[in-house]
Amino acid sequence: MPACKVDHDASPQFSILRNFYRTHGYPSIDDDLAEAFQAIKQNVQANRCRTVPRFSAVLQGFLLHKYRQKNKAAREGARGGWRIYALFDKQNNVLYPIIVYPKKEMTDVPDRQIIDCVGELLKVLEQRHLT
After folding, report:
1. For burial by CB atoms within 10 Å, which of 26, 46, 108, 124 has the most?
2. Alpha helices in 1-131 (DSSP H)
3. Is 117 helix (H, G, I), strand (E, B) or coil?
4. What residues are paired with 65 via a beta bridge?
């Protein structure tokens, strides 16, 4: 798989979640995410990537990927570490992270949250395209 670009600043919700966990007991989040994004930039299928097809009706041609990343502070490995949901724009080879959370805080993200984050990101990307 060719290298891709990771635009981790596009999603407002991703930034909110990253900042929340940084200030609520997860000091390694920035380093952990930097490590994840470095691997993903080299191969979009890195970090035990799994495509989540059940949201295809709202993705407007994007692919939804779910990644695992080790939480260095937790010392639990990738299994108990971070989960990252991201939209992949295959046409432009850009990955847009939309949700990040530690596995020990929740087993999975509610469908409504994913749908809302996808819609929010698509609006941001549309605005970028219009300006």
Report:
1. 26
2. 12-23, 29-42, 111-130
3. helix
4. 51, 86
Q: How far apart are CA 37 and CA 39, in angstroms?
A: 5
In the chain, the amino acid numbered 33 is: L
- DSSP bridge pairs for 68: 83
Percent of the chain with pLDDT strictly greater than 90: 74
* Nearest by Cα to 101 from 57, 58, 56, 71: 71
62-120 per-position pLDDT tens digit = 999 999 999 988 776 667 799 999 999 999 999 999 999 999 888 889 999 999 999 99
d(CA 62, CA 70): 26
